[in-house]
Amino acid sequence: MNKAWNNTVPVWEKPESRRLEFKESFPKGDQVAKTVIAFANGAGGKIIFGIKDDSRKVTGIPETKLFSLEEQISNHIFSKCSPNIIPEIYIQAVQDKTLLVVEIFPGSHKPYFLKTKGKHKGTYIRIGSTNKLASIEIIAELERQRMKISFDAVPATHVKMDEISLETFLKDYKAATGRTLTQKKLKNLGLIYCDHDQLYPTHAAILLCDSIKRKQLFPNAKIECARFKGTDTQVFLDQATIDGPIHAGIEPCIAFVKKNTRLASKIGEVYRKDKWEYPLKAIRETVGNAVIHRDYSILGSDIKLAIFDDMIEITSPGPLPDTISVEELGTGRSEIRNRILAPIFKDLKIIEAWGTGIQKIKQALKYYPEIELVLHEVGHAFQIQFRKKIADRTSTGQVPDKYRTRIVQDADKVKLLKYCREARLLKEMMSFMKLKHRETFMNNYMRPLLEANCISMTIPDKPKSPSQRYIITQDGEALLHK
């Protein structure tokens, strides 16, 4: 079967990601099976044979080998993966070359694993563009997904109700709704589980409590706030840990942002108008979404709010749900990860309606044309950045012609762009340009080319990876052809 790409961006120009992997040919060992398993355990994905994974060069598969390769892949998946995974395999013609596409859909019988290793040593998940062995906690989460049980609904049967205090939550709930929560209502909300007349709190109740049990069982159910000097994390100027009932952590975060950003005043015709450096409504919405949508089953990871000279960055543990991609955010589509907490947060007026968070953030940003919104998955987490735009850069990320003209007029940058028609390591690029001082090279060459979107990283999820390479983009090629 032959299919057409349904995307305006050619697939070979995209970097490998959570849902995409390239193979020039069929590799030895279990590499393909691991990727298939990781895709089935996650959001699904495509393995495209006939494209180099490092340079994204389309090499194609000889027609004489297509059907034998298809059979090899099918047999490999059937013999290596458990439970059975049924791929869709089809042929795609690109640039007078033929590719073989193996499409894997999110599985309904998770966890999937290597037959030879078993569930506990052979379950793989996709983190960025790599396959990783799943931890015990992640395997448990995959099993909950199969049974359609959310982590916050799980009862903590080793904890008695009298070991936790919901005093702060009950007070805040009454203030927001006017309703007093009785024991029966707490059961109906999914905060109490009853077994043989014994009452136990669910994970949701523990996350909302103000007892030591929350810190003992969920030590990372907190928000770490930091103000850094400059644009990296080398020097702290201020920091705070927001470590209380999870619903009560949002306003302290906003207070931290106010403390560490500027309030500017603009004199109007009649009144003076005050405007914060960043849109606080958007920041509040982002923090609220991070708290309600984070994956609390991931131990060792907390929500992070970082303020730099050039941006505010909020990182929440857990990737996007399998059915939603970054591109679909803001379209109204929604999938609730924490099914007990979500309606409670709605009652508390922390969230208003499902699927509207990104829309509200973008609405708030209309009054901040100097700030751009960047959404992406970083490893096994989701990150939102509020970046200050570089001079002359528009909200679409495009750079005006006068900025790019400077690049075209610089013979050295043009030479470097041509060199990057194949993916190159930073040290290779410096050697090619006969430069030894890294900072000078970054300031004079790399940053201008990256900011102008003339080159891109091959591993964008791991900008500091020792395997990081840089390759020319469509915009870079278009610039060379001017």
Automatic annotation (TrEMBL):
Pfam families: Fic-like_C, HATPase_c_4, SLFN_AlbA_2
Residue ranges of domain Filamentation induced by cAMP protein Fic-like C-terminal in the record: 416-473
Top-level lineage group: Bacteria
Residue span, Schlafen AlbA-2 domain: 16-134
Record protein name field: Putative DNA binding domain-containing protein
